[in-house]
Specification:
Blueprint: E1 10-16, H1 22-30, E2 48-54, E3 58-64, H2 75-88, E4 91-96, H3 103-114, E5 119-124, H4 132-142, E6 147-150, H5 158-172, E7 192-196, H6 210-221, E8 225-229, H7 234-240, E9 247-250, H8 255-261, E10 268-270, H9 271-279, H10 282-289, E11 300-305, H11 316-329, E12 334-339, E13 352-355, H12 363-376, E14 380-382, H13 383-390, H14 394-398, H15 402-418
Parallel strand pairs: 1-3, 1-4, 4-5, 5-6, 7-8, 7-9, 9-10, 11-12, 11-13, 13-14
Antiparallel strand pairs: 2-3
Helix pairs in contact: 10-15, 11-13
């Protein structure tokens, strides 16, 4: 549980109005004093995170948010943090006080509906719980389901409450018990996959980057074998293989070396493209890549990085991709760079969004970013696809994913006809 990255955990946002008992409920669920609680209004001013195991759901992150009815001078900023939490939440736990239901609660339900995430309503009673017929009448009147009652301050109710909560979440989130494959569905047991993994100044000291580690584990889970080589050793290692690999995967920055050094009939792709399927919508990203052909000097391009890091001199997002895109369009482009949870509210001025692989985002957060871009009418692709498109090998590295390749070719045809 402790080694599971946050981006692969079930994420549950605890929302509600000020002093509804959100932090007290977080402490009840976690079984410890995770968050500060007080009768003072607005005790929680930022999102408090708690990782834990919710059997049989698995590793989870609880997100305790500020009150949605915060009308203080900083209320708008705190509300934005709550929206950021909702963007990555798999489900919402809406905390309300019996008899105190109104606009704040309806707003949470509306925000969850926009993001297509289910809501579990928890009535936090202070003394006397509502009668069952009152709950039934309320649920029918407000058109809500999945209601639980609990006195969040009473730790003796923890076990019974968790049993009810987990049972409801299992019904609302059946997919939470399965993890989408990264690459093992492209392999067969006893097959061989070769990974080309550059070790350069941008590689983390003493370890591989997360997508590479995840690819190794996923291949082993599928009972396949893995050969790993640096880009300069890859040609020699490839020639020594007694059998042709079922798949070759490389870092996007060396995609041309992979395609030049291996047999063209062997399926090949990049770690970034694999991540686009695991964390988002590979077909939507592929369609967005076609917009690269329509870029013109002066166009605005958003480069979105999900993690924050100290950029190297040849940083992929800040240096390499801008150079490739400007070479492709034949002039200077107007770039905006964002990192971490920062993501513009207004996307309509951009001609293209180029997003990182999203290894630090969970799938829900990435899908919400895709939804926001689609609603704004702005094409979005990811780092690996962008690099491969600029180097003329995107068709090759999309070949293991026929539907995505077809989507790219279809959009490419539309752009060529419009030019």
């Amino acid at each position: 549980m402790e080694s599971t990255p946050k981006s692969l955990r079930l994420q549950l946002a605890i929302c509600g109005r000020i002093n509804a008992g959100k932090s007290t409920l977080l402490n009840l669920i976690s079984g410890q004093n995770t968050a500060i609680t007080s009768d003072e209004r607005g005790t929680t001013t930022d999102v408090v995170e708690k990782t834990m195991e919710l059997r049989p759901l698995g590793a989870a992150v609880l997100l305790d948010t500020a009150g949605v009815d915060d009308d203080t001078p900083l209320g708008k900023q705190r509300f934005q943090k709550t929206l950021n939490a909702l963007d990555r939440a798999d489900a919402v736990i809406l905390v309300a006080v019996p008899g105190d239901w109104g606009e704040p609660e309806q707003e949470v339900i509306s925000l969850a509906g926009e993001r297509k995430i289910p809501v579990v309503t928890v009535f936090n009673f202070r003394s006397t719980p509502l009668a069952e017929e009152e709950i039934t009448t309320f649920s029918q009147r407000e058109n809500i389901s999945s209601v639980i009652q609990v006195c969040a301050a009473d730790q003796s109710q923890r076990s019974a409450f968790l049993d009810k909560l987990v049972s409801i979440l299992l019904e609302l989130l059946p997919e939470s018990r399965t993890t989408p494959p990264l690459l093992n569905d492209l392999l067969t047991p006893d097959s061989l996959v070769v990974l080309m993994t550059p070790i350069d100044s941008q590689a983390p000291k003493g370890r591989l980057i997360m997508p590479e580690v995840m690819a190794i584990r996923d291949a082993l889970d599928g009972n396949a074998s893995v050969v790993i080589a640096k880009e300069n050793a890859f040609p020699g290692i490839y020639r020594k293989l007694n059998e042709k690999p079922a798949l070759i995967v490389c870092d996007s920055q060396v995609v041309h070396k992979m395609t030049e050094s291996s047999d063209p009939e062997i399926p090949q792709t990049t770690f970034s493209i694999l991540m686009s399927r695991l964390k988002g919508d590979i077909e939507e990203f592929a369609a967005g890549c076609a917009a690269i052909e329509s870029l013109r000097p002066g166009d605005k391009v958003l480069i979105a990085e999900a993690c924050t890091h100290h950029a190297a001199d040849n940083d992929i997002g800040k240096v390499q991709i801008p150079k490739l895109l400007q070479k492709k369009c034949g002039g200077m482009l107007d770039f905006t760079f964002t990192a971490g949870a920062d993501y513009p509210d207004d996307l309509q001025s951009y001609k293209l969004i180029v997003h990182c692989g999203g290894c630090m985002l969970n799938r829900k957060a990435m899908l919400n970013r895709l939804r926001t871009a689609k609603n704004a009418g702005v094409p979005i692709c990811n780092y690996g696809m962008c690099i491969s498109a600029c180097k003329g090998v995107l068709k090759k590295v999309l070949s293991p994913f026929p539907a995505a390749l077809e989507k790219y070719l279809s959009e490419l045809d539309k752009h060529s006809k419009a030019m």
